[in-house]
Structure formats: structure tokens, C-alpha cells
Amino acid sequence: MRIAHLSDIHFGTADHDVVEAMVEAVHASKPDVVVASGDFTMAGRRSEFRDAATLIARLPQPVLATPGNHDLPVYNILERFVRPFARYRRYLAPQTLDRFRNADVALLTLNSARRWDLSLNWSHGRLSDEQVERADRFFASAQDVRFRALIVHHPFYVPEELPGFKKIGNAEAMLRVLAARRVHAVLSGHLHQQSVTSRSLTVAEDERTVHLLQVASAASTRRRNQPNAFNVLDIDRDGVWLTEHIGDDDRFTSMEPRLVIPLQAPTPGQPGRARERPIEEITGSEL
Predict the structure, then answer these.
(1) Cα 173 from Cα 170, distance rounded (Å)
(2) Is the separation of the CB atoms in 127 and 112 below 8 Å?
(3) Per-residue pLDDT reduced to its tens digit, 88-123
(4) DSSP per-residue string spanning 52-102
């Protein structure tokens, strides 16, 4: 089973040569499913969403997607507050899925973008208690699936060298559910940086790990000192292998695959107490 994970294309500041190279490289990787974790646009303009809709139609199908904070209208404040995801719903939701499940994988997307925030920075994300419960129900019904992952836009971990960013709100409640349901990974974007980290949690005296797989911007010119990139995840009998595809002008080069998640036989569990390790759906009603 193969998953391509891309994020933060940012039409409006996207390098269109890189977009073309990315589409070609994603097709060449022959994924079974594509995951896109938000920020298709830069300012939520209709023209940017039209470009994003064209891209989605060109990618291998099916595509799972969730909005990012840049996919809300930036300049139309009234629409941002009254109908924040109307443009996303019109242009992208009809072409994408909010969840995917087969014998090998169970994938769920949740919308972490918010129309406003108590701070002056409205880019921060949050998960509601209802979304935590939704994840619990979904993954409780997928205990027999080999690989389980949650897809959100905002990160559960922010490196110290990125001041101004915050980890996703309600992270601890979600992580306790993910650990209890033996969810292997969270796939996210937002930071425009590649990273693989993890959280260790204790559930009924059993230590479990949730892996946090962060992907860089796939095509934006706002690279934050990293090249454009997307990831490919291969799930086999040994575990999950991650292959980074790094952009260089008009081409993407695949790196050596590395085992990032050893897989064990799934077993149901109970919610437990979170503990740091030293190392470190979109539904119509939501939109």
C-alpha cells in the first residue's frame, strides 16, 4: 500500500514549474491514495481555488484532503466569519474524500483551521472535543486495519527554531485517543518543514508511540529555508517506509526510503495518561 502526502501548495504564491514537476513525480510514484493536508491557496481567493481544483483533478485518485488556515478568505472578513469554508466546499470538497479505509489502511482527515483565534495570529489551529470523539469512533472501528493515521493541517510538534508557531490546540486530548486506539501516525503540514518525531504515551501500563510525520511545502515559493518536497509512505509487512521527494527547480528527486514506523499486530486499548518521550473528516457540517 502506498500513500503520497503533500501539503501547502499555496496557489497565489506557488511556483507553477514546481507544480508541474510535482504532478509528474506524484504520478510516477504510483500511489494508491493521495493525502493533501491543507493550504491549497494563499488567500482563499476564488481564482486560487480554481487552480487548486484543477490540480486535484490531475492527481492520482482518490485524494483525501482537509483545509488549512490559508484556505479561509483573507480579505473578505464577513465571509470568513459567516461562511468560512464556502469556497473550499464549492471547489475542492466535491473532488476529495474525508476518510479512506481498506484492508491495509484507515485514514481520517479533520479540519483544524479556525476562522479566528483569541491571539492576534489567526493562523493557529485547534481540534474540538467533538472532533476528538469522532476520531475515537472512527479508529475504534478500524482496529483490524494494519496502518491507521490521522490527517490534519496543523502540527502536534513545533521545533524550537520556529518561533511564532504553536502546536495544534487540544493536542493532548487527541493524542490520548490516538494512543488508546493504536493509531500509528499523524500526517500534517503548515510549518513548511520536513520532520519525523514521536510522542510516547502510557495506556493501561503499556507504552505506545504516535509518530508525527511533517511534510514541507509541495510547491510554494515560501519555503522557509527548505526545498519543496512531498513524501511517499509504503506500508508493508515490516512497517512504514518514508521516501522524501525533494524539489529542485523543475524536477523532484526521490531520496532513500527509511523505516519510520515498525508495525505490530493491532490490539484494542483504553485511554491513558500522556507522557513525553525525551526524543521526541471534513464533513459537511464542519464546513
Answers:
(1) 6
(2) yes
(3) 999 999 999 999 999 999 999 999 998 766 565 567
(4) HHHHHHHS-S-EEE---GGGS-SS-HHHHHHSTTHHHHHHTGGG-BSEEE-
Q: Indicate the domain borders of the chain.
A: 2-274
CB atoms within 10 A of CB 50: 14
Instruction: Report residue 246 as a C-alpha cell.
Output: 525533494
For position 281, what pLDDT does the model report? 28
CA 50 – CA 46 distance, rounded (Å): 6
CB contact set of 205 (below 8 Å; sequence gap of 6+): none
For the beta carbon of residue 214, count every other beta carbon within 10 angstroms.
Answer: 25
pLDDT in tens, 134-157: 999 999 999 999 999 999 999 999
Q: Which of 177, 181, 196 lies closest to 274, judged by CA?
A: 177
Q: Could you confirm whether domain 2-274 is CATH 3.60.21.10?
A: yes
Averaged pLDDT for residues 15-44: 96
- The 3-state DSSP class for residue 21 equals helix
Predicted pLDDT of residue 205: 81
Main-chain dihedrals φ then ψ at residue 248, nearest 5 degrees: -145, 95
Cα angle 56, 162, 16; round to 5: 30
Query: CA torsion, points 205, 259, 276, 210, in degrees to nearest 10?
Result: -60
Element containing residue 259 per DSSP (H, E): strand 258-262
The reported pLDDT for the residue numbered 227 is 95
